[in-house]
Structures are given as structure tokens and as C-alpha cells.
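cache lookup: miss for this entity combination. No prior model stored, computing from scratch. Input as submitted by user K.M.:
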Amino acid sequence: MFSNNEKISLRQLQVLLILQGLGTGVLFLPKEIAKAGGSAGVLGVVLGSLFMVVVGMGYGLLLKNHPQQPLLDIIASLWGKPVAVVVGVVFFLKLLVAGAFSFRLFCQVMQESIFFQTPIWMVGGCLLLLALLLTGKGYECRGRLGEILFFVAFLPLLLTLVMAFFGIKGESVRGAFSIHGTGYGKTIGITFFSFYGVEFLLFAAPLLRNPEKAVKALGQAGILVVLVLTVITFLTVSVLGISQTQGKLFPVLSMINTVEFPGFFWERQDIVMLWFWLVSALLSLGGTLYFCSGIGQKVVEKSQRKWVVVVAVLVLLVSALPRDLGGTLEGLRWVNGYGGLVTVVFIPLVVFLADCWKGRGKP
Amino acid sequence: MKKTGTLLCLLTLSFLLTGCWDKREMEDRGYVITMGIDATEDGTGYDMAFGVAQLSTLSTQGGNSGGEDAPPLIAVQGKSLASALREGNCKTSRQLYLGQCKTIVFGKGLLENKALLKGILEELERKEEVSPKTMVLGTNGKAEALVGQMLLEDGSTGMYLWEYYKTTADHLAVTKRVGLEDFLRELAEGQGQGILPLVSIKEGEITLGGGMYLREYVLEKELTPKEERSILFWKGEGEGAVLEERWKGDTVSFVVSNNGTQVGFYQEKGGIVCYIRPVLLGRIEGGGNLSKSVFSMESKQALEALFQQKIEEEVSEILETLRQKGEDTLERTYLREFGEPVLPFSVKVQAKVHIEGVGIIE
């Protein structure tokens, strides 16, 4: 009754994109932006995320043109299997390392903000077990779970953000939306590469019910992500100010904690954000396990179930590499920046152009 | 069978995810509601006073007998908040918890000691338990004495100061509620400049009004309630203020119901001018012999001009005083709008008063 041949609807795709895309970025982007662009950073976030919407819509075109072929199949048909294998390895490594670092970041932030005494392996182990369970149930289960969790995680966050507007002081609004400043390029770049899991779209074609309508759906989801990211960065910079945003470890959590609900005695509004991030981390980790195992299966041709276990072990091992939170953030920044340049921009662009050149795709 | 196993597994996970390593029972905690922080006599550490909520008193009032509470006031010394808390925990069976702390009062001694003030602010900012919304105040005496006095006023919840600000002070314009995060932001952006609301003990009673102006993290000037009010007019936060003037032999009160302020710059022959335009809406209050003469169009205009002049004088005066002491908010506004270099400018205050809500008889 609940199954629909392992395919997800475009609405579910939108929800997954929003929850994954906002995950890590939502927590760390304002700090990075304030450091790189100062008060001009908010504009950088708008432009950077709009660029990502354009790229996402470009992926939508690929999905439309090749409704049954994931990226590696398109590459194999263009240049042969060996090239597809090499590209598969590149994507596997990038998604695995970025996924593992995001996972470590999640565990570390949870430990430093709410689970002070709970061992980090317990927090991480629970999340990994849930993600494994989710992956084992297939992609459709992930889509349906995302659809349910969207309402219980995203809407409370939106309500809290609305309340945060009341904490803004007049003069700080002008400061937060300044157009005088440098670092636009850097802030655009940081924003553009802060979205996790956009590459999943390149492998999602056979999993979609109506891939021909994906361009519009991805555009709509992207616009919502742009709005939320902009609002969160704007609020953080306005409520805390530039120097406080630069200096705090988790400025978004501090900003959320300044929210006052009338009649509430609840002091930890950051729980709303952490809950949202928990949902996002679960779906992102599930996505990493699912797509990395899928790529592994294409490259080495073992069963996907075996690959899921291998990827889970690799995620655990790679996540243990960074020494601390700073090292994890630095590593994630590096992988998202340099790795993203290859997997988010370069490879999809080359494939798209070659596809159009051979007359199989419609620009 | 498989489904039952999965269900059991999920249930087990849900218990684990409650963070049982971090659990603390409510009744094991001593909830610090008000904290007083001061410098020790030799200026090398902190005198701290923790005002703890007396929950058993509350429950007894409600008809139930509660357990024993921590002592209402725990006074300790320490080189940091962490060591003072440890010291405080040695004096009570309940673990002192800052997660519900509503008010922090900084003593004059601390406000005069830059290193100690910066140290404690950093520690408060980093401490996860302390809410960024915690209200901060300055006092011109010892912080411990103030917390003690406050506990005499309200010994059960210890929320006297917080409730005063929440329900009254925000609407009076004699002082303004400042949250910890707001204060940290003000200090960070002004390189150590900021104003703390002032709370003091006068003739055995807690009095609120005025402020403590800090420059480079050191107390520079104690502001009177009138000076604090002028600053609020300048910042557009003077709602609730009451101004009084003599007019035609009577005392006329102007109650501000709304206040906004525009700040900007323009070029004129003599150079750059920074304009500050407080716009105030309010009503004239008076009765008896006064009412007939006040409630006419001519009188309204005359009174508006009278209060405009008063506000302009007040704001100009406080601006001059503070700018002489190095206050540079206007320079930072210029920098934000036009970038460097900040050229010299003169300041012009042009208030606009609108008297509304009076019945015009003539």
C-alpha cells in the first residue's frame, strides 16, 4: 500500500533537497560569511545560493533528458565504462568524505551543546544505526520519512525564526544589509559550496516518478532554501552583530536562544535548530549510505546491501580522522570547496555540454 | 517477529537518545536566579553572590511541603566563575545551576577593573548554561549587598529585578532592559563601550534608574536617570518617558507614547552635519485649571515647541558629555554608511514632538 516501486514524488525530492541542503550550512554559514564578507555577507549568501539554484535546475535538465539514467550511465554511454568508473570513484570519495565529516560535525556539536556527558560514539552510533535502517528500507522510505519530518522539524524552525525578527534593532538592519564591502566573491563561493548532497540529484533519475518536471520542482525548492538561508544569516548578523557572529562557535544557536516566546519559560530555543539538524543529518547520512553504495555497486558490481555496510564502516573510520571540531570544519570546507568544484560544477557541466553536443540532450 | 524486534530496537534507541548520561534530577539542583559579581578587595578575583530560588517555600505556600532548599544567598570567592561555582557547591547539598539565571548584577568594583570584567564576560559568553537573554545590570555599590537586598524583597523566586524590568522598566524610559547578548554585542562593536542599566540601594530600598557608561571595558561615568532618558530619546527608545515643564504658571506633563529617531548626514556650507531627529508622539496630561488652556490648537503648537526645545537641549547635552568622553557611535554610523576616512562633522539635534489624543476645545 505504501510502496510505489521504489520511486519518490517530486514533492518528496523537494523536501529532501531542502532538509539536506539546509543542514550543515544553516548552522555554520553565518559565521563563515561574517568572517569572509563582514556586513556585505548577506548579499553574498543571496547570490551564492541563487547560483546553486541555477545549477540545481541544470541538474533538473539532465534528469529531464535522461529520465532513466543516472550520471554514470550517461557518462558510460558518452565515453565508455572506464571513464564512468573513474568518475564514479571521484564522486564516491567526495560524497563519502563530506558525509563522514558532516556526521562527525553533527556528533561533536550535539556533544558540545546538549549531550555534554554522553559519549560521542553513543550519539554517532545511534544516528548511524538509524541511517542504516533507513537505507535498508530503500529510497522511497527516505522520501516518505522526509515528507513527514519536514512538518515536525522545518515548521517549528520557521516559527522560531519569525519570532527572532522581534529581537532585531533598527540600526543593526542597515549594518547587516550593507553593500559596501569586499569579499563578495568569497562569500558567494562559501555559500555555493555549503550545500550538502546536491550531487545526489545526478544519481536520482531512476528513482523519480516524474523526472521530466524536475526543473521546475528543483527551482521551487531552491528558492525556499535561498530564502531560509538568507533569513538565517540576516537574523544572525542583525541580532548578534558582525563581530559577535565572527567570534562565536555556534552563532546561529546563540541567535536562536535570544528568541523569546511570550508566556514561555523555555530557555533553550536552540533545541528547535538542533532538532532540525538531527533530521537533516539523518537524511543526509542516509543519502550518503544509499548513493555511495549505489556508486560502489556500479563500479565493482557487488550487491548494494554489502556496499551499504562497507560505506558505513568507511564513514565511521573517516569521521574519526579529524582531531577536533576545528579540524573537522576545516576538512569539510576543503572537501566541499575543492571536491565540490569537481563534482558539483566541472563534471556535470562537461557531461551536460557533451550531451548537448551529441544531440541527445536539449539545453 | 521481525517487526517486534525492530520495534524493540527503536524503543531502546529512543531511551538512549534521551541523553541519560546527562540527566540531572530537578530536585537535586539549586536554581540560581540572580547572580551578583564583583571584584575582590585586592582586585585579583571575584566576589560572587548566588541568589537561589526557594522552591520549597513556593510549594509550601501552595499547600505542599517541599524538601530542603539551598541557602537563599551563597557568597563565595573565586578566580573564575567555574571555581566560584565549585566553591558554592561545597556550601549546599544542591548542585548550583545557572540555566534559569534571570539577572546578573555587576558591582562597581568589577566595572572599574578591565581585566576582571573582560574575563567574566568571556566566561559567561562561553558557558552553555547561561542564556544570552539573561538581564545584566550594574550597581554603584557591592553586588552582594544588592542581591541580598533583592532577596529580602522577594526571597522565594528571586525574580524581583527581572520581573520589574519585564513588566515596568521597559515602559518607563528611566532605564532599559539589556540582555547579556545585547551587552556583549554593544561592547564588541564599540571596542568596550556600552551602557548598563543602573540598580542601586537608597535608604534600604532597591532603586532602578540611570546607567553605568563603560569605555574600553572600564566604568567611565555613572549616568543619572535624566541622562539615561536623554540617551533613550537619542536612540529612539524613549517610550513611556514623562517630561515636565512650567507653562503659563502650571506644570504640564508630556507622556511619550512612541519614539523613533532618524540619524543621518548631510553636507552644508560649513562642512558635514550629522543630524539626529528624535520624533516623539505623546499626550499632555493635566486637569483642573490646566485643561482649558492646554486643549486648544494654539496651545498645542506652543507646547510642542516647548517640549521640542527641551528634548533638543537634553539630547545635545548628553551627546556632548559622552562624546567628550570618547563615545563614538555617530562616527561608527558614518563609517558604516560612507566608509573610511571618517571626516569631521558637527552634530545637530532636531526633535519633532507631536501631541496627539487631546480634545481640542477651541
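stored under new cache key. Chain A touches chain B at residues 39, 112-119, 122, 126, 129-130, 133, 170-171, 174-175, 178, 180, 239-244, 247-248, 254, 257-258, 260, 267-268 (CB under 8 Å).
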